């Protein structure tokens, strides 16, 4: 008998509702219902085809302990553990297969040994955005309370931490203000730094539909031509120019008096100082663009975009092309300024829409998986280190143990030569994972855990929508929160939870201003639609309707001037570019997700894109002179990569994906990062290339 079971997609932050057709505990098909609130009856190829991983023979379906770890710790082991080591079965050349109860005991013993020997600050945890809110909440609680360490971080560090940092001080929240369906209520859409058709396809479907119906004009601002640009105006800008462009839009709105005086007077503070700063900033006048060789036409087109944004009901969407820069947080602030200037926030059909990456990165941040926020964005009693700082502490010998939950730090983070060296300094790495990936290969203790399609849990998508998932298939593997509970109970014995609802009931009380009314019962009744936080009796689709979520209810302006550098500086000063010198940006392709840990196990997906490809300009084909290159920086180099020449790429620039670890893309990025929040500079880096002949 075939059963249809409703749940939520395990991939990106769009959070599509899905239905799995299941027979004999195996997923046969995944599809979207025609009345699906998020999906609207359509799924991207990952959502529809990328479920093979659940049944993959490569799944970690046991506990594993590295043989070298056993050898190194044998003499120090307590008698009962030492006796049981002799009964462990060999799994492969590197690992023993171990019983679950023994492995949780071993993990608890080693963590306590390290804490007693080196102190509570010697332990850190990374992860949480690839699992449910119940597990992400439990993860930060395990680190903060179970181990009494402040050092917890998640993958927001390499994606949208600058969105939170840029939005929260200005308007009191760092999350999307409106539902995706407001795309059908708006008159104008700006997309900046988001390859939406590849990274968030179901949101792109709405934008394309609105464009075709002529209910909304669309403007796409990016460093290259992308597919969604075909549905509106497309502005190709230089690398490192986001803040420059955004401040210029504000200059046009201010100098032409297109701003909303009533909105500013009643709902904002700091406007006059901001206005004075912009109008006296030489970088903010769009005429400056006439000095940027190859981009002069922007001086004519950008003011038109600013006028349209100011005079229409507008929404602003952005992605990692905004946040993964040196000034990512400041660029987000500049986007918020535009909304405040024009009153394009706090009402239907307007809004600020950061397109979150991971399926539960919003929920992980809400539940406290950041070193500077407790659950509900409360100030913690002690602020921990961010991931790049933790890497430095590992190299110094101050961090000795790390717990990783669904975060492949040995692949997706920058400066991988440095990261790998730092990881070698640890005495123990514990990992909860589905498959052996780059970080799990380095782990000493591994717990195979349930996937999203095998468990009950709450996920929060990019528009603050809580969705209670339910398992499509049964599994006897533990959930992430269960592993953490069982280890903690062998340390302190204070995690008393019988099931995921027990964990959720505590979570929603700790995240009280957002989740308090979101019981399992209420979320179950609203499984198709979901509910947008803050949730009390009802939910809140649109934020900031009457007041902002700041202390005084007012939004505020905080101006930051653009800093001339890199490609823009060289173009303005007419400096010569070396023959092998290029500017590189990175991004996703639609068939893969992040480190491809799941999608690479799907033949339907991986067969379409089984190697990372570099896109280069047709104009540079003779200059490069090869079909394969190595990309180099002072930090490292990639593997040999194939090159595809395209008219969509500007001369002197390159683009590549980073899904396959063997490509070593993230070995070429260094420690350069957002000034405020340390998100890596993945979207703009000067590189040298080595053409491979033959």
What does this structure look like?
With 694 residues, the protein is an alpha/beta fold. Helix content is 31%, strand content 18%. It contains 25 helices and 28 strands. Strands 5-6-4-17-16-15-7-8 form an 8-stranded mixed β-sheet. The chain has a 6-stranded mixed barrel with strand order 22-27-23-26-24-28. Strands 11-10-9-13-14 form a 5-stranded parallel β-sheet, with helices on both faces. The longest helix is centred in the N-terminal third of the chain and has 19 residues. The mean pLDDT is 96.
The rounded distance between the terminal residues' Cα atoms is 56 Å
Overall body shape: globular
Please state the structural category: alpha/beta
Q: Radius of gyration from the CA trace?
A: 25 Å
Please give the count of helices. 25
Beta-strand percent range: 15-25%
| Spatial strand sequence of the major β-sheet | 5-6-4-17-16-15-7-8
The strand count comes to: 28
Taking pLDDT < 50 over at least 5 consecutive residues as the criterion, the unreliable ranges are: none
Overall mean confidence score, pLDDT? 96
How would you sum up the major sheet?
8 strands, mixed
Fraction of residues in helix: 25-40%
């Amino acid at each position: 008998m075939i059963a249809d079971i409703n749940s939520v997609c395990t991939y990106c932050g769009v959070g599509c509702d899905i239905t799995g057709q299941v027979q004999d505990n195996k997923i046969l098909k995944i599809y979207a219902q025609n009345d699906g609130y998020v999906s609207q009856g359509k799924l991207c190829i990952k959502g529809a085809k990328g479920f093979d991983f659940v049944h993959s023979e490569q799944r970690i379906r046991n506990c594993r302990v590295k043989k070298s770890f056993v050898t190194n710790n044998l003499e120090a082991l307590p008698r009962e553990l030492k006796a049981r080591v002799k009964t462990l079965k060999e799994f492969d050349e590197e690992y023993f297969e171990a019983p679950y109860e023994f492995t949780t005991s071993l993990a608890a013993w080693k963590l306590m040994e390290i804490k007693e020997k080196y102190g509570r600050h010697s332990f850190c945890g990374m992860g949480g955005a690839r699992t449910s809110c119940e597990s992400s909440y439990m993860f930060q609680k395990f680190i903060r309370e179970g181990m009494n360490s402040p050092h917890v971080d998640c993958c927001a560090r390499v994606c949208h931490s600058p969105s939170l940092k840029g939005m929260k001080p200005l308007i009191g929240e760092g999350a999307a203000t409106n539902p995706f369906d407001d795309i059908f209520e708006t008159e104008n859409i700006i997309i900046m730094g988001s390859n939406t058709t590849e990274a968030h396809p179901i949101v792109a479907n709405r934008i394309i539909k609105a464009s075709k119906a002529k209910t909304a004009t669309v403007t796409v601002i990016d460093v290259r031509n992308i597919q969604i640009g075909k549905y509106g105006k497309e502005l190709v800008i230089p690398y490192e120019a986001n803040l420059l462009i955004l401040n210029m839009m504000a200059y046009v709105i201010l100098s032409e008096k297109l701003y909303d005086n009533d909105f500013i007077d009643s709902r904002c503070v700091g406007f006059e100082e901001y206005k004075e700063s912009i109008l006296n900033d030489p970088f903010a006048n769009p005429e400056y663009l006439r000095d940027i060789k190859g981009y002069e036409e922007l001086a004519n087109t950008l003011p038109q975009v600013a006028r349209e944004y100011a005079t229409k009901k507008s929404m602003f969407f952005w992605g990692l092309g905004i946040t993964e820069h040196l000034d990512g947080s400041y660029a987000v602030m500049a986007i918020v300024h535009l909304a405040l200037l024009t009153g394009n926030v706090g009402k239907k059909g307007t809004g600020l829409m950061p397109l979150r990456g991971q399926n539960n990165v919003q929920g992980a941040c809400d539940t406290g998986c950041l070193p500077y926020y407790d659950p509900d964005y409360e100030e913690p009693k002690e602020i921990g280190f961010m991931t790049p700082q933790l890497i430095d502490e590992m190299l110094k010998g101050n961090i000795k143990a790390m717990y990783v939950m669904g975060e492949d730090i040995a692949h997706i983070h920058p400066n991988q030569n440095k990261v790998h060296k730092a990881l070698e300094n640890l005495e123990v790495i514990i990992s909860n994972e589905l498959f052996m990936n780059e970080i799990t290969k380095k782990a000493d203790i591994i717990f195979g855990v349930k996937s999203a399609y095998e468990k009950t849990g709450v996920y929060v998508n990019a528009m603050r929508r809580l969705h209670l998932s339910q398992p499509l298939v049964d599994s006897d593997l533990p959930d992430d929160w269960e592993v953490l509970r069982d280890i903690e109970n062998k340390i302190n014995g204070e995690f008393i939870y019988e099931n995921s609802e027990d964990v959720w009931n505590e979570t929603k009380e700790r995240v009280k201003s957002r989740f308090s009314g979101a019981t399992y019962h209420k979320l179950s009744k609203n499984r198709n639609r979901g509910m947008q936080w803050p949730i009390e009796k009802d939910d809140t689709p649109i934020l900031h309707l009457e007041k902002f979520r700041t202390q005084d209810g007012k939004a505020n302006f905080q101006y930051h001037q653009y800093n001339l550098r890199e490609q823009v500086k060289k173009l303005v000063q007419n400096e010569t570019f070396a023959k092998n010198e290029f500017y590189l940006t990175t991004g996703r392709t639609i068939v893969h997700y992040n480190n491809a840990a799941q999608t690479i196990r799907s033949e339907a997906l991986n067969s379409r894109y089984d190697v990372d490809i570099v896109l280069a300009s047709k104009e540079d084909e003779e200059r490069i002179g090869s079909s394969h290159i190595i990309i180099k920086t002072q930090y490292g180099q990639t593997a040999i990569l194939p090159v595809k020449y395209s008219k969509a790429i500007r001369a002197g620039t390159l683009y590549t994906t980073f899904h396959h670890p063997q490509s070593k893309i993230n070995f070429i990025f260094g420690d350069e990062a957002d000034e405020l929040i340390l998100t890596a500079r993945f979207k703009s880096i000067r590189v040298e290339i080595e053409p491979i002949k033959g």
